[in-house]
Design a protein that fits this description.
repeat; protein-cysteine S-palmitoyltransferase activity; ANK repeat; Double-stranded beta-helix; alpha+beta
């Protein structure tokens, strides 16, 4: 190990870094008289900072090895004299070296791949303490390599980081998958997908240090929610990145008594081969003295560290058996486990998922009843604030799955109505919210499940609850055009006037999207047609702007004011003339502005109203510049309709311009001619006292104030 920094704990204890911030060697620790509090605190702090710590020539006895391990947390159980230890050697019970081609030898090949201890279990391993008892001759190999997954995450490009954090991917870990990767021929007939897997977040916060890290391992079979190729591509990208040489440290085993302690939650490790392979005994006992991060969870089964004789044997172990019985609906097995260990009803894996969540997801009613009878909480959160009630609302829409699950959320997600009712009757909170603050009712409305929504409302769910984005269940129902749910919610007190982002609400969205049935339902249930939203505009503004004539007619029939003015004083009539170009961008294809103008004029739109700049609809139509590129036919049509409804060609704006002077200044002969002929004999003068017909002859030397003012529009 190359020393880059040396720190002294006492006069006798030194710590030397292998790389800055990762892996360190400690000398001077004496365990002859047991484990002192100072020594254990020093080691825990060192492992938290560096991830990996090696202590040379410890001469630990098994008793002290276990004592030291317990200072890091609760120990796993296993099969040797000391249950907390297990053997990872290549030595058989008779002392012979394991044949590399034997089943055990083939299975051990997976250790040469970068992995994390026990990630294939429901519970992650926390720390591992690996003690060397017998080693091959010096210089013949036998190192252990470690990869720093905290720094690997830090160095990811921002786009990849954003993708990982936004999607919060879950990876499925299988010990059979890694074994098959390392010995493909031997395990050719094994399909890891047929067996249970450990599910863990791909990106996690390292709890002791607070840093973010990648939780990677060769055990990862797939990433949930992604197609096979996408999953493979993302995993390979991250795995290749995290195992680059700059993140990896190899630690040589020098002599018996060497001890390596590492944190499985922020590192990967693998066995490094050498010339000793297949020739020398390797007896490194102690990797089994590893801790669970989840201290409240019952001890993981040791059979998952080696192939069980039968699946049934593995199933009946406390932790794995409880989750397996919940997942597959094995009620006899679950009853036997709970009768022996009732506390298993409250188990959580490393993601905080409970057996009740799994049973809710799969619809196993009898299992749920058993778990609840034994004290399983229907309101418990996982690590990301999801409850069982939240899990049932999506009705199998995997692409919309929230990762914030509880037993109730699982029931809703998978449309388990009778399970949902069972949980509610058992005291589940119908308004319990996940990290996005979405309640079970919000999830039901997103998915359009009226039965679930009605049940939740019957149990007192708040119909006006807002999530983290300010949206209510009514917002979600309207956005997804679930008209039946809209009626149900409004009949039960949902407020249609709540604007979820301060600018719009379901009525606004219905007008924008042209959802006539939804708009009618909202109006029938009491939605106000003249409620002001974005820019002080009503839904009618948005309907005509988006050329939603059917919705505009509906709004008008319910009393929408066609002369309503927004914050800058413009009416819907002014808006559609001004924003003709914008409407083309929103609605590709031909739009007839004359049809929209005619619609509003027929319903009483006043063509002589002025905005805050004194501009009328006629002046806007005449001022047909690059921002309002109507064709000449559409422009003449609109101008004629406005004139027929009494629009005044002589109405001056705040700069003294009239429609007639503007047409003359723009040298728009067709429009000017129309204005003059429609109002025969008209000779209005502009603010400078010049005749409109004379401005055309003199516009190149016209009054500077007229030229400067032309084109000034709305705020």
């Amino acid at each position: 190990m190359s020393a880059s920094t040396t720190m002294t704990q006492t006069a006798d204890i030194n710590l030397t870094e292998s790389r800055p911030g990762f892996a360190a060697e400690i000398t001077g620790l004496d365990f002859a008289n047991g484990v002192t509090e100072d020594a254990s605190c020093f080691l825990r702090d060192a492992v938290t900072k560096y991830g990996v710590v090696v202590i040379r020539s410890t001469n630990l006895t098994d008793d002290i090895h276990v004592e030291l391990a317990r200072t890091f947390g609760e120990l796993d159980d296993n099969r040797l004299k000391y249950d907390e230890l297990f053997d990872v050697s290549n030595v058989e019970a008779d002392g012979s070296t394991v044949d590399s081609e034997s089943p055990k030898g083939q299975a051990n090949k997976g250790n040469s791949l970068f992995h994390v201890d026990s990630s294939f279990n429901p519970c992650r391993a926390g720390y591992s303490l690996l003690l060397a008892h017998e080693l091959p001759p010096p210089g013949t190999g036998g190192a252990t390599a470690f990869a720093d997954t905290r720094t690997a995450f830090d160095d990811l490009d921002s786009e990849t980081k954003q993708d990982l954090l936004e999607h919060n991917y879950i990876a499925a870990h299988s010990i059979l998958h890694s074994k098959k990767l390392a010995a493909s021929e031997f395990f050719a007939n094994i399909d890891p997908a047929d067996c249970p897997m450990g599910r863990h977040y791909l990106v996690q916060r390292h709890e002791p240090s607070g840093r973010i890290n990648l939780y990677l391992a060769a055990h990862i079979h797939h990433i949930e929610g992604l197609e096979t190729e996408e999953s493979k591509s993302l995993f390979e990208k991250l795995f290749k990145h995290a195992t680059q040489e700059k993140y990896v440290v190899e630690i040589e085993w020098q002599q018996p008594g060497d001890l390596i302690i590492w944190d499985n939650t922020c590192t990967m490790h693998r066995a490094v081969g050498g010339s000793f392979a297949k020739k020398y005994r390797r007896d490194e006992t102690g990797d089994g003295a590893y801790m669970k991060l989840d201290k409240e969870i019952a001890k993981p089964i040791r059979e998952m560290t080696r192939p069980p004789k039968t699946m049934l044997q593995a199933c009946f172990k406390p932790t794995f058996g409880t989750f397996l019985a919940a997942y597959f609906g094995l009620d006899c097995m679950m009853r036997a486990i709970l009768n022996k260990e009732a506390g298993n009803a409250q188990l959580k894996n490393s993601n905080g998922t409970t057996p009740l969540c799994l049973a809710s997801e799969k619809g196993h009613t009898r299992i749920i009843k058993l778990l609840i009878e034994k004290g399983a909480s229907v309101n418990t959160y996982d690590l990301t604030r999801t409850t069982p009630l939240l899990c049932a609302a999506y009705n199998g829409h995997e692409d919309a799955v929230t990762l914030f699950e509880t037993p109730i959320s699982t029931a809703i997600r998978y449309n388990r109505v009778e399970i949902l009712e069972l949980m509610l009757s058992s005291g589940a909170n119908p308004d319990i919210a996940g990290r996005s603050l979405r309640t079970p009712l919000s999830l039901a409305t997103i998915n359009g499940n009226e039965t679930v929504a009605e049940l939740l409302i019957q149990w007192g769910a708040n119909v006006n609850h807002t999530d983290s984005s300010g949206q209510t269940p009514l917002d979600h129902a309207a956005q997804n055009n679930h008209t039946g749910l809209v009626e149900l919610l409004m009949q039960n007190g949902a407020d249609p006037l709540v604007a979820y982002d301060g600018t719009r609400n379901p009525m606004w969205n219905a007008a924008k999207d042209g959802e006539e049935v939804l708009a009618r339902s909202l109006l029938q249930q009491g939605s106000e047609p003249n409620m002001k939203y974005e820019k002080g505009q009503t839904p009618l503004f948005k309907a005509v702007q988006q050329d939603r004539i059917a919705v505009a007619e509906l709004l008008s029939s319910y009393g929408a004011d066609v002369n309503f003015r927004d914050r800058i004083g413009q009416t819907p009539l002014m808006l559609i003339i001004k924003d003709y170009h914008e409407r083309e961008m929103w609605n590709p294809g031909p739009i007839d502005p004359g049809r929209l103008v005619g619609f509003l004029l027929e319903r009483g739109a006043d063509p002589n109203l002025m905005d805050h700049n004194g501009r009328t609809a006629l002046l806007r139509a005449v001022d047909n510049n690059a921002d309002n590129p109507m064709g000449i036919y559409e422009q003449i049509c609109v101008v004629r309709m406005l004139l027929e409804k009494g629009a005044r060609p002589d109405a001056q704006d705040n700069h003294g311009r009239t429609p007639l002077t503007t047409a003359s200044w723009l040298d728009d002969k067709e429009v000017e001619h129309l204005l003059l002929t429609e109002v025969f004999g008209f000779s209005s003068e502009d603010m400078n006292g010049e005749e409109p017909t004379r401005i055309r002859n003199y516009h190149d030397i016209s009054d500077d104030s007229l030229k400067t003012s032309h084109g000034k529009g709305d705020d």
